[in-house]
């Protein structure tokens, strides 16, 4: 993709955020290598996040990244949620340090949260879900304390974190009988889901997708007498339509969260009467989506700024 094409794509993204779906992406190329995790984690790790606990468990914690040199100015804020197949052994919030630091450098505060994965005591159902909900609602406390604009929160989630970000946007539609339902969930203005697995039924049935096939049952539990449908309050399509703007960004070369996951979800959204943006980036895999300096990240910066109501 040439520079002119990228510029046209970015203009279309910013102009149509959350309302005008972009054209379908071309088929995945068969040549070329994607970025590996070592190419990101091998970079010098940024420092500067303020560690804040929202619960008693060591994983019930987040890092607040604040822009420098802007005293007295209310900071726009991103709620950032890491992926890792919902497993703490695979990833924690520090995987998003580079993205968080890059946003803070650009004047955007970031609440980069952790949560108990399915491989930790208290994780899975309901703990993983209640953790991210509690962490999101913590912004009500952090807002006045650190000068954050909480009237226009944008959630950015990667991979499994993309599913959790979209789930947060649907909390107000949870069944009354669900233990995940709370009385007053904090409102999200927009969700930008990067390489996400929003439809757990599709992810679980996708051959060769170990994150979905093995990860989803550990996340949602097994059906039983009291929970015959374990996806009713955990899989985003069951909470549609969302009142929150939503945009999915996928890499055409992504093998962890293939483009088909996002496109199938987009069909469900539109069938339910909602709107969704879907941007597929031909040269990107899974890692490029959270790696500052990549074309994918440049596109996502445009999305984030537009969702926050910031100038281009």
Furnish the topology, listing elements before pairings:
Elements (H helix, E strand, L loop, with lengths): L2 H13 L21 H5 L8 E4 L7 E5 L9 E7 L15 H9 L3 E5 L13 H11 L1 H8 L1 E11 L1 H10 L20 E5 L5 H6 L4 H11 L24 E7 L7 H13 L5 E5 L13 H14 L4
Parallel strand pairs: 3-4, 3-5, 5-6, 6-7, 7-8
Antiparallel strand pairs: 1-2, 2-4
Helix pairs in contact: 1-10
**Which CATH top level class fits?**
Alpha Beta
Class derived from helix and strand content? alpha/beta
How would you sum up the global shape?
globular
Q: How do the helices and strands follow one another from N- to C-terminus?
A: HHEEEHEHHEHEHHEHEH
Q: Widest sheet: strand order?
A: 1-2-4-3-5-6-7-8
Q: Let me know the average pLDDT.
A: 89
Provide the β-strand percentage band: 15-25%
CATH topological fold name: Rossmann fold
Helix fraction by DSSP (H/I, runs of at least 4): 25-40%
CATH homology superfamily name: Alpha/Beta hydrolase fold, catalytic domain
Task: Give the beta-strand count.
Answer: 8
Alpha-carbon distance between the termini? Answer: 22 Å
Biggest sheet architecture:
8 strands, mixed
Q: Which residues form runs of ≥5 with pLDDT under 50? A: 1-31
Give me the CATH architecture, please.
3-Layer(aba) Sandwich
Oligomer: single chain
Q: How many domains make up the coordinates? A: 1
**Alpha carbon gyration radius:** 18 Å
């Amino acid at each position: 993709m040439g520079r002119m094409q990228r510029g046209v794509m970015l203009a279309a993204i910013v102009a149509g955020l959350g309302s005008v779906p972009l054209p379908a992406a071309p088929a995945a190329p068969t040549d070329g290598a994607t970025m590996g995790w070592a190419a990101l984690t091998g970079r010098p790790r940024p420092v500067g996040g303020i560690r804040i606990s929202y619960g008693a468990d060591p994983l019930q914690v987040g890092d607040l990244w604040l822009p420098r040199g802007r005293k007295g100015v209310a900071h726009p804020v991103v709620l950032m949620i890491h992926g890792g197949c919902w497993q703490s052994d695979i990833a924690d919030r520090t995987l998003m340090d580079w993205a968080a630091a890059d946003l803070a450098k650009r004047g955007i505060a970031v609440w980069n949260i952790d949560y108990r994965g399915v491989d930790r005591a208290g994780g899975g159902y309901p703990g993983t879900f209640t953790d991210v909900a509690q962490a999101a609602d913590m912004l009500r406390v952090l807002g006045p304390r650190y000068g954050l604009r909480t009237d226009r929160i944008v959630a950015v989630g990667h991979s499994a974190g993309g599913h959790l970000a979209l789930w947060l946007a649907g909390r107000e539609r949870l069944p009354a009988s669900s233990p995940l339902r709370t009385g007053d969930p904090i409102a999200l203005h927009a969700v930008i889901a990067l390489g996400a697995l929003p439809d757990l039924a599709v992810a679980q049935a996708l051959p060769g997708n170990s994150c979905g096939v093995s990860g989803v049952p550990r996340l949602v539990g097994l059906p039983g007498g009291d929970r015959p449908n374990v996806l009713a309050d955990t899989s985003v399509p069951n909470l549609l339509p969302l009142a929150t703007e939503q945009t999915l960004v996928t890499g055409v070369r992504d093998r962890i969260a293939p483009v088909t996951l996002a496109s199938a979800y987009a069909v469900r959204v539109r069938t339910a009467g909602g709107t969704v943006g879907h941007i597929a980036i031909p040269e990107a895999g899974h890692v490029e989506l959270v790696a500052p300096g990549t074309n994918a990240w440049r596109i996502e910066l445009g999305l984030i700024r537009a969702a926050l109501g910031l100038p281009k």
